[in-house]
Amino acid sequence: MFRFPWERTYTGVEVTQPCCPEVAEFEQHISRCIAFAARQFPWERTYTGVEVTQPCCPEVAEFEQHISRCIAFAARQYVSCLCKSYFLAKDPEHYADIAWSLALPYDESFNYHPQFSGYTRGESIKQADAVLLGFPLQYTMNVSTRANDLSYYESVTRSNGPAMAWSMHAIGHLQLGEEQQAEANFNKSYQAFVREPFKVWSELARPSIGAVNFFTGMGGFLQTLMFGYAGVSIHLDKLQIDKPRLPPGATRFKIQGIKYVGAKLTLEIDKESTTLKVSSVDDKWPLSMFNGKYNVTLVPVELTGEGPFPITARPWKDCKIPADVIGNNNLRPIGA
């Protein structure tokens, strides 16, 4: 299997220390993260011709390897259509068949996603894993299934795991409207991991340390603010703002410099209102937003209500958007 190295140099080869060969062998989530980013990038780049900002992928563990492959395979079919290039995606229909035939573990009796085929309920895990289906992968599922994934894995995630696990749980609860559970996980994601006096993050909660200046934990914290409390989400065909709210204890929350399809946006949230400011747009790619009643040209606007408020651009070509369907080990139906 081809994969990106866990630790690499400029040459791209694996340079993990000889002491720990198992780390290089089993730390596979880098490849999954890159597969997901690769699927996002061609869409947003070729759909509009303009580069847009991307959400940084959190730790994506081995559970995601089939899902991320499916996503990347489906994207090849779409990119091949955009570029009319056989060389870019040879036999794209074949890759769509592969994507459809990959399996996603699901337990119907408990209405949740086991971490892997053969997983035993009650077995402890290190960090957020199956819950990443909800975010960042945004895989479509029943609300009850996602709620069960969150509640179950919170009960078996080990207490001395890394910070970003609780960030992903916080985002999940916010997207389900469960603010008390979200706040508890948000606080859990940073309070025991930030070291005084310089606010340096560590991998493990006090009194343990682990890796120091732990960017992954910081990234999870920032994602909770951006994609959780601010309600921003990036989809194949739109940027969406849904249920923006203040983080715990905050009186004002501002995200400046959101770049999407050539536009620069600022989202401001306070106790009274939420305002979306537009500092610039690209005339070649006008954006529109659904305000709850109508699709309107994107201009500075006060957002009323919880949303969702989708912001969309004009399609570049008439190519079918990947369906993001994991086929549960079945043959792909004709036309799918």
Automatic annotation (TrEMBL):
GO terms for molecular function: hydrolase activity, hydrolyzing O-glycosyl compounds. Residues 237-281 form the Glycoside hydrolase family 65 C-terminal domain. It comes from the Eukaryota. GO terms for biological process: carbohydrate metabolic process. Gene3D superfamilies: 1.50.10.10, Maltose phosphorylase, domain 3. Belongs to the glycosyl hydrolase 65 family. This is Maltose phosphorylase.
